[in-house]
Amino acid sequence: MKEDETASVISTSDNSEKANAGNLKEEYISPDQARGNGGFLIAYFNVTCVVAGTGTLGLAKAFAEGGWLGMLILLLAYGMAVYSGIVLIRCLYYKPGERLTNFKAVGRAAFGRTGYAISAFLHFLNLFGCPALYLVLAAGNMKALTMHSNISLSHELWTIVIGTFLLIPSLILKTLHEVTVVSSIGAVCTMVAVFIIMIESPIYYAQHPEHTVIRHTVIWSGFPSALSTIAFSFGGNNTYPHVEHALRNPQQWSYALTAGLTTCTLLYFMTSVPAYFTFGVDSQSPIYNSLPVGPGQIIAIVVMTIHVILAIPIYTTSFSLELETSLRLNEHRLGKVGAWCARAAIRTLTMCGLCIIAIVTPFFDDFMGLLGAVSNCGLVFLLPIICYLKLTGLKNKSWYELGFCLLTIVMGLTGLVFGSIAAIRNLARDFATKRPY
């Protein structure tokens, strides 16, 4: 999740932006204006719920593509994600006495319209791409769960059924205040899946000593693909300004972020290491497809299906809310009925678009790699660091901080460029070979 999925704290405050968000004055507020009353634990759980999600399902496959080097990449990405999240919040306060409102405003403050366009593109790509990926996973899971029943449907039909079902809450809910509890349920589901994989993998290894497991120390050709999957696992930066603004004491942000990302990283190691050790290069994404058929695999599939089904309306409503705000589709202009009709039209079109993408691109692992490379490498490793250096300058930084910034940017560019190329090639191969899904 990445997995991210407390988009409930994510985009609700974006609602308050006026339609003419291009006006810089509207992107600055007083640092203490309408701050939340949340404490350290609230911020910690928000970060954990935003970040820890479906990324856990792909990391063993990332190790299979990059070898045990993936452990080092994961640790590096963890440190870079912590630093990126801290400096992103510093960017919000770069102007004394004022605070930028959101991720897109940081891009504008640093690089004007170009910065705003790039940050908005990455932000919306994340908000639109994640639910499409989750639809792929949910449809595939439902197909697997009902394969031997009387209601066995194709992947395409399950995508349409789930999309239609999830359109209902999107039409009923005007904002995201009503679904805050969803994020905590998603986090619990993720943890259940993590513990199942962590326990089932070594049991399978012990029960099948006859199986030859192939593992590699490093596979340089698979480095970009592994990096893009790992980048997806740390996505969430575009939500941090809203999580931090909900803190009563903003000085606690760096501690809450570090604790949250540390928890996520521990969960990642708890799944990826035993799974890769057990299945080696045969590790699949989602990893529970590698588990032996039985109660453990079924429970893992069920809880992750619940997780993504609960997360999809949060993302789609967040995306629609920002679009509605930009187009000024409000009750003041259109009246209550007109605003609802406009909202229903946008959210229906959004869900239709997601279903089309999920049907056309049903390959979860390579879709995740592409989304991680294009969206999350920019959101996590590139834009926050570059904007931070632009807004606060270079001369007040130590040489080792600048060196770490450079390393982070190089990692981000590597994942963005070569990870995208690898993901596109993999998807092209999937379509050419008509790979089963």
Automatic annotation (TrEMBL):
Localization (cell): Membrane
Family membership: Belongs to the amino acid/polyamine transporter 2 family.
Cellular-component GO terms for this entry: vacuolar membrane
Transmembrane segment boundaries: 41-63, 69-93, 114-137, 157-173, 185-205, 217-234, 255-277, 297-323, 344-364, 370-391, 403-424
Native organism: Hesseltinella vesiculosa
Record GO terms (molecular function): L-amino acid transmembrane transporter activity
InterPro entries found in the cross-reference section: AA_transpt_TM (IPR013057)
Membrane topology: Multi-pass membrane protein
The entry's keywords: Amino-acid transport, Membrane, Transmembrane, Transmembrane helix, Transport
Superkingdom, natural source: Eukaryota
Chief location of this protein within or outside the cell: membrane
Name this protein carries in UniProt: Amino acid transporter transmembrane domain-containing protein
Residues covered by the Amino acid transporter transmembrane domain: 38-424
Any Pfam family matching the protein: Aa_trans
